[in-house]
Amino acid sequence: MFQLLYLGRDYPQGYDYFRTRLKRAFSKNKQVSDPEKIEVLIAHGNYVVKELEALYMLRKYRTLKRRYYNDN
């Protein structure tokens, strides 16, 4: 969860929006007790982390490309 909160700092719609959505997702699944379902939810969380990291890296790449390779 802390890794997701950390990644939420740079979320395009803002940290407050991200934090609210994250809290809602965790609250929705807090009563889950089936170990298999918990593993699926953890795997989905790890997928979300990887996707956010990829999006942030892409944004940084595009910024650097725009800065050094002007298309004028």
UniProtKB/TrEMBL annotation:
Q: Which GO terms describe its cellular component?
A: mitochondrion
**Biological-process GO terms, alphabetical:** negative regulation of oxidative phosphorylation; respiratory electron transport chain
> What Pfam families does this protein's entry cite?
Complex1_LYR_2
CDD domains hit by this protein:
Complex1_LYR_ETFRF1_LYRM5 (cd20265)
Mind telling me which InterPro entries this protein's record contains? Complex1_LYR_ETFRF1_LYRM5, ETFRF1
The entry's family comment says:
Belongs to the complex I LYR family.
Per its record, how is this protein called by name?
Electron transfer flavoprotein regulatory factor 1
Query: What gene is this protein a product of?
Result: etfrf1
